[in-house]
Design a protein that fits this description.
Length: 380
């Protein structure tokens, strides 16, 4: 092998890689660029796990969100074990019995494990009945403890309800509010943004002045004012959709302005001009030519807007103006844990904060990855 051939090998490999890349479609290039971002991939995996857990919350939870354990009020977390007090290893995880005593110094109830009682943990075992996907009635749970044993992965609240189960059921509200709320904001913002950018004139002026008025009001007070207008007589499902409408009405303005900017840059493009000369209807130009060209941008904006929706619901429910019991959400759980006593005596009740943070950070990672993937030719 000559020196010339050795020196040309890297260039040949690089040329071959460039040729393979040149044969990829835009969609394949976007996927390839997204996969380059490790944080975005990790965020996508975490969100996939979170939403899968949300769908199968009843199956994953050992109890329902309303199951109370009167003997274990404000109990700390107790996890399964594989090694007993004598140092012997067990293939099947087990739970020790839980007994309560009173601390004579503080008169506080203290829960301790009773090593004389062992209860095995079974997987895919029958327990309390629930509706899988809200339709299929079943009683099979991912894990169950042989009665009278108890398993409290994240402790219990002041009513003796399992915190882990309530977080799983609460995710069904908190996570779906973000998706449904953003879809509604997308519907409002994309329609008004495209119409404002294409028609201009009075429609543009009215739309932009309305957005300026909404954005000039501080977001949290505006949320509070709109949420306070939700009638107290509404049932939990009506309140759920009412909060979605409140969050959507506040957040559509920024999206509409960005879509308007894209539309302004596209309305004089050759393909739009050609559509006008072929006597295409305005509705067809908007729906078939302008709006589809905003989809990649809309996807990125939607991904970055969902965390704001989740945080908005959490904040409103924490302040008592959002989702109301008996419906459970992460904000409702934090509302029940807002007293100083919780920080001192029951810090495990603040565990929903971890789920909110993980979800919001994961969405931001995915949004950053999608933003880079939306323009696969940038930086090439």
């Amino acid at each position: 092998m000559t020196a010339a051939s050795i020196g040309s090998t890297p260039a040949a490999g690089k040329t071959s890689a460039e040729e393979r890349k040149a044969n990829l479609s835009v969609r394949q290039l976007m996927i390839l660029r997204f996969r380059r971002s490790k944080l975005a991939v990790v965020g996508a995996v975490v969100l996939a796990i979170m939403y899968t857990s949300m769908i199968f919350a009843g199956f994953i939870s050992p109890y329902t969100e309303t199951t109370t354990h009167e003997r274990y009020v404000s109990a700390p977390p107790f996890w399964p074990k594989f090694i007993d007090a004598e140092g012997q290893f067990h293939l099947r995880p087990f739970m020790y019995g839980i007994t309560s005593t009173t601390d004579r110094a503080t008169f506080k109830k203290v829960y301790v494990e009773d090593t004389s009682q062992m209860y095995p943990v079974y997987f895919f075992k029958a327990g309390l009945p629930y509706k899988l996907l809200g339709v299929i009635e079943t009683d099979i749970h991912l894990f169950q403890v042989e009665e009278p044993g108890k398993i409290f992965l994240l402790g219990t609240d002041r009513n003796g309800r399992d915190q882990f189960s309530r977080i799983m059921y609460g995710s069904q509200v908190s996570l779906t509010i973000g998706l449904v709320g953003v879809m509604m904001s997308l519907a409002i913002g994309s329609f008004l943004g495209v119409a404002s950018g294409y028609y201009g004139g009075a429609i543009d002026n009215i739309t932009q002045r309305t957005i300026e008025i909404i954005q000039s009001i501080p977001q949290i007070p505006l949320w509070l004012a709109l949420a306070a207008a939700v009638p107290a007589t509404w049932d939990p499902m009506q309140v759920y959709f009412g909060i979605i409408i409140v969050l959507s009405l506040v957040t559509w303005g920024g999206l509409a302005r960005q879509v308007r900017g894209i539309t302004l840059s596209l309305r004089e493009s050759d393909f739009v001009t050609a559509a006008r000369y072929t006597n295409c209807r305005t509705r067809r130009i908007l729906s078939r030519h302008l709006l589809p060209n905003t989809y990649s941008h809309l996807l990125v904006i939607a991904t970055l807007a969902i965390p704001g929706m989740i945080l908005g619901e959490t904040a409103l429910s924490f302040l008592g103006l959002g989702i109301r019991p008996p419906m459970v959400s992460w904000g409702v759980l934090l509302n029940e844990a807002q007293q100083v006593r919780v920080l001192l005596q029951n810090p495990w009740l603040l565990s929903p904060i971890a789920f909110v943070l993980v979800t919001v950070v994961s969405y931001n990672f995915v949004g950053d990855g999608l933003r880079d993937a939306a323009d696969p030719f940038a930086g090439e």
